[in-house]
Structures are given as structure tokens and as C-alpha cells.
Amino acid sequence: MYLLFDIGATNLRLAVSSDRKRLGRCLSVPTPQNFHDSLEVLKDMTDKLAHGQKIQAAAGGTHGMLNKNKTSIVSCPHLPGWIGKPLVQSLRQMWHCPVSLENDSNLAGLGEATYGAGRRYPIVAFLTISTGVGGTRIYNKRFDANAIGFEPGQQIINANHPAFLPDRSGRLEGYVSGTALGKKYGKASKKIIDQKAWREFEQYLGYGLVNVVRFWSPHVIVLGGGVMENRHISCQRLNNNLRRMLPKIPILPRVVRGRLGQQAGLYGALAWLAQNS
């Protein structure tokens, strides 16, 4: 048996796979802010899923920036209680098996590139728009090489206008993340129905997509994350906006919604295990 995990800013997910080819049963709970509480929660989830079976290996992702050895979180505004904690060491001791850790956006992108909306394209740009904004570039269903990781949510798209999140002024995440929308409108993104609000969202996101095209040159841009589940967001309008802002590029990548939903990171962990078995 193999374990797959996804430690997001909002939810913590754990799933099993018997063969590293198919995703089995999955459990999801709110992510504890306290690191030691999270270990107790993970132990309880493991007991419910594994039923005492031997765990061969585990792989998964976590929100935030990882250290060089990919064993702990070094920066994460949404999970401050996890920073610097011995995450991989603790999971190895709990599960008695090798544990591989990646950034959650990387794994979600790998999942969509392997099993989801980007599976037919060689170069996939993935953005996850949820509590924060993350993303990655996947080439031939493999992680693209990088020195310090990808942070498309931190790109500056508006240097002269305050963001909805003052501590992320000018950055894409400060305008389109669930946290930013909640700050501006006083409600969760799924409860926002004002069409003007979503046209403004699409405008700001469009600025970020222009940079994605220019810097990453993908065949497709896949948009995932909880915010993108809102039916008032139109990928057709996003594609039209991109065409309007980049009129001289003859062939633009399509902008599409992800197909794997909240399990994209788990599918990415599954793909990673299959590649590295």
C-alpha cells in the first residue's frame, strides 16, 4: 500500500493506492494550524485508511516554500505554525517508510498534466487559485527544472494600485486569491455572485496570464483551485482577454479549467510515485 497526501492551507487530504496507478479511498479534514496537532490528525486518518497494512512509500505536497532538501517548510504565510518543523522526519517515523515531499502546486500541476486537463500537451502551465496563488510548469509530464521553485502568485501585476491584501501589494495573489477576495468583499469566493466583481477578477488574472505566456511559453494554461470552481468565472472571457492583450502572438495557449478538482495534488503524488518507483 502507498500513501498520498496533500497539505493545503485550507484542507489536509490523505489517500491510498494499492498499485501506484489508481487512486483509492481519500479522506479530507481542515488543516490544523498547529504542527503537532496535524500529526495526530494524520495518524488517525492513516488508521482509517490503511487498517494496519504495511506502507511501502508515501509522497505528497505541502503549501509553502520548502528547504533545499525538501524536508520542511521554510516560508508559508498561511501555515506559520508549520515553518521549520521536521515534517518529513515526523512522517517517516509515523509511517515507517520512505517519504517524498514536494510543493503542493507542483504536484497539482503534475496531476493535471498527467491525468487531467493538460494530459494531451507537452508543456503545461498550471495555476492554482485558492487560499493563495501558486503554480508550476510541467514539461513532458515531469517537473521543470528550477533553482528556488516557482511562485507565479508573487509576480507584480500592478505596481501603482494597492492590492486587496496590503502585505501583498501589487502582486497577483493580492487581487485574485480567495484570501484577497474575502478581504475585499467580506465573504468566501463561492458566495460572491456580483458579476462586476468577477469581471474585475478576470481582468487582474488576465495580467498574470500574459506573464505566464511570455515567461513559460506553454501549450495550455490549466487553472485549478477552489476559487476557480465559481461558475461566474468564464474561461472564454479569459481567452478573449488574452487575445486582446497579446494580439501579435499568432498561436496562444488555451486557458482551461482543471479537471481533477481538489484531488489534483493527490493525482500528482500518484504520478510522482509511478515515475520514481
Task: Provide a descriptive summary of the structure in words.
The chain is an alpha/beta fold. It has 2 domains: 2-103, Nucleotidyltransferase, domain 5 (2-Layer Sandwich), CATH 3.30.420; 117-259, ATPase, nucleotide binding domain (Nucleotidyltransferase, domain 5, 2-Layer Sandwich). It contains 8 helices and 12 strands. It has helices at residues 35-50, 87-95, 104-115, 173-176, 178-185, 195-216, 235-245, 264-275, and strands at residues 2-7, 11-17, 26-30, 57-62, 65-66, 73-75, 99-103, 123-129, 133-139, 142-143, 220-224, 254-257. The protein has a 5-stranded mixed beta sheet, with helices on both faces. α3 crosses α8 (264-275). The longest helix has 22 residues, at 195-216. The radius of gyration is 18 Å and the shape is globular. The two termini are 13 Å apart. The model has no long low-confidence stretch (mean pLDDT 94).
Brief synopsis:
The chain has helices at residues 35-50, 87-95, 104-115, 173-176, 178-185, 195-216, 235-245, 264-275; strands at 2-7, 11-17, 26-30, 57-62, 65-66, 73-75, 99-103, 123-129, 133-139, 142-143, 220-224, 254-257. With 277 residues, it is an alpha/beta fold.
